[in-house]
Amino acid sequence: MLRWLLPHAMPETLSLIHHVIRKSAHFTEYFILSLLLLHALRAGGHDFSLRWALIVILIVAGYASLDEFHQRFVPGRGAAVSDVLLDTTGGAAAQLLVASLLCWRGVRKRRGEGTAQSEAGIRPAS
């Protein structure tokens, strides 16, 4: 497909693009898996804790390890520790994003409460 899209590209360039696409897919797949696992473990709740994030990252790392182990037995495939690390990084990045978004939402909510209080003439406690 890359040869069709980029007919004049050098083989080395096509190989590099293919490599980047494959590694990006690893990261993205485990990023999404991590989000789904967090949602499943929280049973759809909206709370977030470091404990949940760490459990999810451990599950992602375990699944990535098992997937690479399985690839050792598939003809034409091989296991790579670097892929496990990349997959786990994707899962950890998802947890970091969720934590950041929830923190940002909390800050915005607190700012909104402070603005509402100041408009009503209520001073925040110091």
Could you list some keywords that capture this structure?
single chain, 126 residues, mainly alpha, 0% strand
Count of DSSP-assigned helices: 4
Average of per-residue pLDDT values: 85
Helix content: over 70%
Strand content: under 5%
Distance between the termini: 63 Å
Can you tell me the overall shape?
flat
Structural class: mainly alpha
Low-confidence stretches: none
Number of extended strands: 0
Radius of gyration using CA atoms only? 22 Å
Order of helices and strands: HHHH
Q: Biggest sheet, open or closed, and with what strands and sense? A: none
Tell me about this structure:
This protein has helices at 2-5, 11-41, 50-71, 81-119. The chain is an all-alpha fold and 126 residues long. It has a domain at 25-96. The longest helix has 39 residues, at 81-119. The mean pLDDT is 85.
Can you lay out the helices and strands and say which pair or pack?
Elements: H1 2-5, H2 11-41, H3 50-71, H4 81-119
Q: Can I get a quick summary?
A:
By secondary structure, this protein is mainly alpha-helical. The chain is 76% helix and 0% strand.
